[in-house]
Input
Amino acid sequence: RMRSSRAQGRRGEQLAERALLREGYVILARNLHFRHSELDLLGLDGKTLCFIEVRLRSSSAFGSAEESVSLRKQRRIVRAAREFLARTRPPRHDAMRFDVIAIDAGTDPPRVRLIRGAFTADGPCG
Output
């Protein structure tokens, strides 16, 4: 089971990356690990530095992929983003944003949705 979920996660990240490239993003890094959190993808959308969370669901029994980005998960992503910015020299950018790629793998083909600005460092948008 562990191997299949890891393979499914890799597949989700590949689908996410393809969707982002189609949207014009430049992928800068994958799977950045920090003390208590991780950034799935780091990218540039024009001059906006994007911290991108990839969420894959094989069924909607427990809610949609985007609904699975809880407030707790958002805080972890924000913490990882702050750690990244403190430790590295980020590429030149005019703005920063938190995006979510939501993948429903229970459909054929899988449904991939990009949610730009899904949340802010202060909490959910909208």
In short: The longest strand covers residues 48-57.
